Each structure stands twice: as C-alpha cells, then as structure tokens.
Amino acid sequence: MRMGPREDIYSVRRLAVLCGSLALACLLASCSIAKKLGVSANAPTQSSPAFSGVGGLNLSSDGKYVLVWDQVAGVADPATVTYEVYSHTLSSMPTGTQASSSSKPGTSGAALPTLIATLADSAAPVSSGAVLTTIKGELSYTLAAAPDAGAITAFQVRAKWPEDSAGGSSGVSSIPDTNKKVLIYSPANTTLSFSGVSGLTTTATGSLLLNWTPPVLTSALNASESGSKIQYSIYMTSTQQSLAAVQAGVVALGSGSSLALSSGSSLALTNASGTSGAGSSSAAGTLVQNVSSSYSNLPVNNGTLLATQTGGSSYQITQTLDPSFVYLFQVRAVGSAGQIDTNNNVIIYQASQPTFAGCTGAKALSANSISVAYDFPSAASSVTIYRGGSSVYAAVSAG
Q: Is the pLDDT of residue 264 over 60?
C-alpha cells in the first residue's frame, strides 16, 4: 500500500530522530570509555611524550658523581615531570652491552666511561634495585657516594608525567615511562690498561713510525676480546713554539717523567717500551708521560685525528712534517665492547732542518762554462745553482 505525503514526512522525521539518538549514544559511550581510560575526550591529537632514559655519568669538578639525562620530549611543562632514579649492583656483565653514546660532557662535569645495556624489568634496577631518589623537573642527580670501583653498578631512570601533558583537560593520574635503558659503570670493565704511545722510530726508507704496546686484557669483559679487535686513534697537533719551550711546558704539567728519544739510540722507558723494527732506529724526540689533561695543546683535545686502525702496534706517519714546527703525537685505544682508554702520554718531535754544504768546488771548463761540485742532499727535492743573483741551473736528483 502506497503512503501519502503526510506519512512520508512523518517517516523521515522518525528516521532523523533515530539517527540523532544513535549519534548521541555513541558520543556518550566514547566519553565514558575515555573517562575510564583516564584520557580527555577533548584532547587534541598529538604525539605521546617520550623519554630516552639515563644519559650518562659525569664527574664534577669537586669529585662528585652525577647522573644526567635529557628531558621528556613532547611535554608542555617539563617542570611537571617526575624522575625516579634506581641503582643496583650486578653480579656479572650483561650480554649485548654497548659503549655509552654520550654522557653530555660539560653539563655536569667530565664524562666518565660507561656502558649501556637494554634489560628486561625483571633484571633491571627498576625491579631488583633500590630507589635512590624521586625528583621533579631536574635533569641530573648527584650520587651520595662514589660507586664501588670493584663492582658492576647499574643505573636506571624512569619518568612519569601528568596525563594532560600533551594537551587537553587537567588530569590527576600520571603516565609512567617504560624505557629499558640501563647505564653500567664498572672501572674494571669500562677502561683499558693501555700505556699509550711509547716510541718513535725511523724505518730504513726514512718513514716515521709511532709505536705502542697493545692493552693488557685482564677483566671479565676484556678477556673476551683479542688484541686484533682493539681500535686505536692516532692524534697529532703542532705548534711554532721552540722545542725547548714545548718540552718545558708539557713536563711542567706532567705527573710522570720526560724521556729523551735520542736519534740512533735504543729506547729506555720507565713505564712503556719502544722497540725498533727490522732496519729501523729510534728517532729524535721526547716521550712525556701522564701529561695533565689541562694542557692546552694535548693532541686528543686540540689536535687532528690522523687515523683510526684496528689492531697492530704501530702507525706510519705519512704527513709531511715541517721542520719549523714542533709536533705532538698521542694514541688512544677503544675496545669493541666499549672499554675506553684515557692515557695522556705524548711524544714531542721536531724534524731536523736539512743541511747542505753548498758548493764544494768549481773548475773552469772553457771560457764560457764552469763545473760546479756539490753533494746532493738525500732529503732535498732539488738543488739550484745561482750566478750573479740569477738561477742558471737546477737539478732534481744527484748526478
């Protein structure tokens, strides 16, 4: 039976009311669910806050140990974030340990060598350790006492932020962070027993070699490595100060000894040994041990990284050394598991100025020519003969 116009309008109105009721019911249901979950129904769509966890361990100028971290990203008011700091002594080094990326040097002192591990909560300080402190809005915490040098100490930082941190209406509860990053400090496992550069030798072909003795791998972590996995960084810096001035300045800041490396003689070192390879001899230079890190021209701080190499016990210097400059060389080592060496031994070297006796004789060959005698220097690239202030002959080799 076909409906009339009035009946059509009535049906449409009923349908509109029904749709409106359903929309209202969905809206109320969504608000109810949001309330149960502790989320504001009016909150704008934004990325959730994120926390990267503990950043590093620094040593302050007054000898205090300071844990540091970055603030939670995506939080409107960083002062509302609460950080919980945990500590735990591990019985062994966790597998998969990596070198610490950065300890934010300069923010709270000098960065200490640390290792990073990703641990499940059941094995991490957050569950098995002690809460050192709970602080709000701060990005560092000073330990009450220095970590046990003979232990493997793990640190972890967790964050909590208000539920409305990313925007929306005010909330009461806090949202916890679940990062699993653990920082490990263990001097026996994070440092290498490496004495640094020990000698400077000259090969039979005249090349200079920096020499060192590979690190002693004694700790539990180090013992799993071989010398071939150790990476060495070779640094160089230069100055136009006199050799005597550089030697005096470095030695004045050194807590060790200054040892002259005389050209052609064997090396006699107290804390390191330099050996000459086949067909080589020691080069003139000075080995200065334990130079203060405050020395302004320390190569590792103020120099150029010449090269990095894995394994070995020497490095051939390929750079041309200007005799008018004094050069300082330093070698640091890093293990594949992140162990860091901090030695400050340097070698000071100045290339010898080339000597040339000049003209040793002359003999007239004719009214228009003369033979000039000279010894071509082995280190020279050319010899030029002058007459009356003008160049009349140039040789690029003996003969």
A: no
Tell me the pLDDT of the chain averaged across its residues: 74
Q: What is the mean pLDDT of residues 350-355?
A: 76
First to last CA, the chain: 125
**141 or 389, which is more confident?**
141
CB 374 within 8 A of CB 358: yes
Query: How many Å apart are CA 377 and CA 359, to the nearest integer?
Result: 12
Edge-to-edge order in the sheet of strand 346-349? 258-261, 285-288, 346-349, 326-334, 231-239, 304-310
Tell whether the model's pLDDT for residue 9 goes beyond 90.
no
CB 284 within 8 A of CB 261: yes
For the cut 70, the answer to whether the pLDDT of residue 280 exceeds it is no
Under the banding of pLDDT at 50, 70 and 90, the label for residue 284 is: low
What is the pTM for the complete model shown? 0.48
Average pLDDT over residues 139-168: 85
The arithmetic mean of pLDDT across residues 284-303, rounded, is 81
133 — pLDDT class (breaks 50, 70, 90): very high
Question: What amino acid is encoded at 364 in this protein?
Answer: A
